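Researcher: Let's run the pair from yesterday's discussion. Sequence first, then tokens, for each.
Model: Starting with the first of the pair.
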Amino acid sequence: MKSRNTSILTPEQRLELIQIPEDISDRLLARYHTFSEQDLNVIHGRRRDYNKLGFAVQLCMLRFPGRIVTNSSDIPQRVLSHIAAQLALPVSALDGYGKRDNTLYEHMDEIRAIYGFRNYGWREILLLTRRLLPIAMQNHRPLPLVMKALDAMREEKIIAPGITETERLISLVLALADARIEIRLTSKLDYIQRARLDGLLLPEATLKGKTTFSWLAQPAQTPSAKSLKKLVQRVKLIKEINLPAIDARLHRDRVVDLSRRCGKYKSQALLKLPKNRRHALLVSHLSEVSQDLIDQTLDMFDRLMTELMTKGKNRQKEYFKINARKFNSHLRILASATKALLQAKSEGLDPYTTVFEKVDETTLAATVTGAEGIVRPEDLDYIDMIEGKYRHMRAALLEMFDTLNFQSALKKQPAIEALNHVSALAQANKRVTVVEQKVSGATVTAPLAHVTAAWMPHVVSENKVNPNFFEACAYQKLKGTMRSGDSHVPGSRRYRDFESYLISKEPWDNLVNSDAVGLSIKSDAATYLKSSKEKLIELMGSLHLNLKDLVDISIDADGTWHLSPLDSEVPAEVKNIQRRIYSLFPRVSIPDLLVQVNSTIGFLQHFTHIGTGDPVPEDRQMVLLAAITASALNHGLTKMADSCPFTYKQLAGARDLYLREETLSRAQADIDNFVLRSPISKSWGDGTTSSSDGMRIKVAVWRQDFLPLATV
């Protein structure tokens, strides 16, 4: 939301918009460059052939692309031939057009008077602004807005100005849209909330001089109770600001764009921005960061619970390894005693005498006692092995549950009910130790619906309850319900209520009643399932009849399907040639390659400073290239700092200040256009397809169709 440069398009984009394509489609020729009988009557009202053809060309150019053309060389020959053929004139007749200076202006006056075309003025600017502003409120990218503006001019018969004037219009529209978005994001903030937002940008002694804003941006650490607690503290901090909900009229793409733009600023730079702009950026940023932090918290919770059970299993394995000698010793003694007992039975001997001759009574009694002390449960249950580890996690897990508002998609959710009970007791400094206990003079019963058969022996013994196993079982159950979608957390992006993805009931009923659903299926679930079942039975019957004729497919008796492996479509000779071709190319390091590409193309000129708009200085270009390489190779800035002469701080600074969607897309356009113009490119097609193994670069703003600057 900084001041915009009116030069918002690349030279290639401008050329694409103002020129008529050489391969213009028949559809466009028929729509814009084909004359009606009335048009022909008007055109033939000129006396000389070159004036007839010139008048006709100007009329067609105003219809598409919508501007005045003073140089016929800018018009493709195919278009001129199409126009001239309708007038039964040669294209060469146009050579004499415009020799008299006033002819063009007189023809333009006639075209405006007869066909209703009008010049671009302040009324037209107002009209276009009103039409484009709603689009700009949803989309901040200039190119689609410029294209929409040109379409609107053609529709309203407005003679398009120069492309730079159109860019100036779009810059104005985007600035107006930004101002409106600022108002919608900040209008409900009170002075306390604004003060708290500004407080995020001030150094904190508790954070060793860092700002809370930078603390919130720190990445999640390795899963641990300590890391989980830090994430929860960040979620709580944002909740304590108590920001109003984002205006539902704001398009999410706009909010995400502002959030990512805010994330690129340093705290000091944000403090220098106008108040409303600063607060709008922070509101959008905190909205997105809050969702990210909640998702990170829930992901870490899932991993911690998985690790808890895995460590229980591993501890049991370690237990067996440590006690292997004892197990072997006890087993040998017990096997010997059992063998003697079986001998006594088969030979009719006294069992006690026979057994004690092999193993004395004292040794046998000690062996039984020792075996009972180390033997594991019959089903090798390892749940009892997790208690010590859970104790270290308990405080962080309870704080997470109290901070996040876990809700159920079902009528009852035993895990949430159990943890609500735990939380209520914790407020009274108590834990679940018995099935029924008194809290503040009232008797409460511990809910046990979440406890499965495997957990029950560890949780309940007579009337006593083991609090650690009671809670661990509830958290393990909660993890499962989060994965299945039976539980959700408001404010999360990936763990939100499934119903939030759907159209709400009232609008849906209105669509159904007005027959405007636009789907080929019935809205009734029973009807849809019935028809799907019938279709499935039909397809299965067809498969059964044709199964014997299917090539390269076989089915075992147990129903397992097998597909024969496909033969390689690349002959061995071709692979040999590929290896020879690759051996001809020199091995070049990526930094050297990027330096060479920049010296040839100069793509680094597009990487401008996020605040000042200045190009990257020459002394910082190598740092920026290293940051680009780290992102492109998915190497990470930390590892890149270990393998290059630049520090992590230098790399992160270059990335945050210069790597953005608009800078990357412009640099990529320069590289793409250079490649397309290269003679060798014509050997690989027309440039509309690509065979590449690319890696996404994580930048401030990105789209799934975004092509990264550096690929490997």
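Model: Moving on to the second of the pair.
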Amino acid sequence: MSYRFLATCPKGFEPLLLDELVSFGAKEVKQVAVGVEFKGELADAYRACLWSRVANRVLLPLLSAKAESADELYDAIQSIDWLEHMEPHNSLAISFTGSSRAINNSHFGTLKVKDAIVDQFRDNTGVRPTIERDTPDIRIHTHLYRGDLSVSLDLSGSSLHRRGYRLHSGTAPLKENLAAALLLRAGWPKIKTEFKQVYDPLCGSGTLLIEAAMMAADIAPGLDRKHWGFNNWKQHEESVWEQLLDEAEKRRAVGIRENDVAFIGTDIDARVLENATANAGNLSIESMIEFKTGQVEKMRPENDQPGLLITNPPYGERLGDSSTLMFMYRTIGDRLKEAFRGWKASVFTGNPELCQVIGLKPDKAYKFYNGPIESKLFNYHIYAERTSQDENREAAEVEPLSENGQMFANRLKKNLKGLAKWRKKNAIDAYRLYDADIPEYAVAIDIYGDWVHVQEYAAPKSIDQVKVFERLKDVMTATAQVLEINPKRVVLKQRKRQSGTQQYEKHGHLGKFFEVNENNCRFRINLKDYLDTGLFLDHRPIRLEIQKQSKGKDFLNLFSYTSTASVHAAVGGAKSTTSVDMSATYLSWSAKNMAMNGFNSSAHHFIQADCMQWLKKQRQPAYDLIFMDPPTFSNSKRMQDVLDVQRDHVRMISSTMRLLREDGLLIFSNNYRKFKLDYELLSAFEIVEITHRTIDMDFKRNQHIHKCYEIRHKK
């Protein structure tokens, strides 16, 4: 019996899906808005379910009808004899999309479809099917558009991209059918007779390599799936399905045995490689793929044979800033040109601008959607012979800094010399060397011992991002040269306004902590895993003042961050310290800072709380010295209210002063450059601005970095 089927797929996959279905022997194949229609017997639909690498679902249309109102929808669904398709005891899931003038709510549409099916079973058999959303026996798709209703049986069950092998995944994994589509557009597996390696230098949980290996070994993507939408369908032809499975099993055995392609994946994170190995093991192809730790800077072919390098580098704010990532993309381009002669390369990114710095002209670019993100796949051919352009480029790379780059280097040398006596006199390990002194080089450069933290001020989007990158390249090169340190110890981040809990979010998990000293205090610093480093350099004079004034006193640190001020207070002889912050991560860091300095007693307290709410609950003046340094703005979900330091500072200060003993001192600081303290509303207190005393030598060029006040009770 011949049927008309619809195979759905993500946007942009339609031509690939059409080619697949033709290769499966489907007839009357036609591309439509949501996928590809085709004609055939049940065996053709089963084959599409089993073998399609790019489809989402294979649907069997049951009805096309007109339905504007709820009653018309109900009657149309009732016109189908559901006993031909399922048993009364089967479980059922219904999806409803679209709308009409009378039906503008998908939940309402779903209920009407469900009622029509259930009522028919109850009227005819006295038994009604159960509703099961996750793994139903039968899944029905309904779509309503401008009064046109279509009803289909889902032969797939769950989406076909769920192959069943990926039980573990890393950060931002590709869907399996997207990975397959990228490989097909890269020419794989057609080129496997000539290209005997597939390499992913940023492989994560291994999806690209696993899909490539499945293609090369002729493994049906659906072979290990446990559940199908047709398993409990009454018209299912089990013998036909079993025959297809048997054929696929034999093809897999032959494909694995005869495979002569090497698949190699590297990643800096050993933990995600464990996931990748486990995923390959779920398909019994772990022997085909080698996963090992490795850095992009050191990527190279496994042997002399040409191959396909295909990768999906990070490209968004969630995984890193674009300026920082440009160095990764430039490195990929450099390594391709240096070590991968004669190879093909395909780079998939949601930020095509990043690929401009790869330095290769793509042969072809394809548009895809990675979820909601419009993305592109760039295909490159790295020619085996070196060209004169290659030689000129390589010669240019070993030349000294450009004229502007040398100007920037000279400014660093000048600043370094200007701070030398001050640093030596005060034994300062961590300081600011440069802060956008030259407008074209809009970065802040902070030194932490033998590490450097470069923070780029985000450039307007109107500025050519490649030019921005070239300037950053000057910055990174000149900084390492002037300071005579390993370039790997120069860490780049992008400065921009943060909101919510972004300042608390972990940006990596490398665990790269090291130690710096400040006025007899030791602090843990991390330049790579977090937005901030663990030590606010501009507060150095404030911390020293707290250290000098703390002896025998009870000290309170509000919005304490990593509690560096609390450590200074403890070193200064404080009787007790109390540090309050919303972040458990930073309080854990705080406790380690305190322990590093030899303080583990019960006199030092760390409280995880919203400071504003915590202040409301405190009533007794229990502290002699208080430091409060709130963020400029926060709308964290963990806070009950939105915090705005300009709007809320009167309330904050008044609440804090309730906790300050009669002869005590509150040091209030914030980094809002336009901040204006409301002296009139705070007239009950004695207030002295001390900002000028809290700006150290390294911040003299930027004296608006913070505002600071001493606040006391009036006598």
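Researcher: Give me one sentence on the second I can quote.
Model: Confidence is low (pLDDT under 50) at residues 391-399, 497-510.
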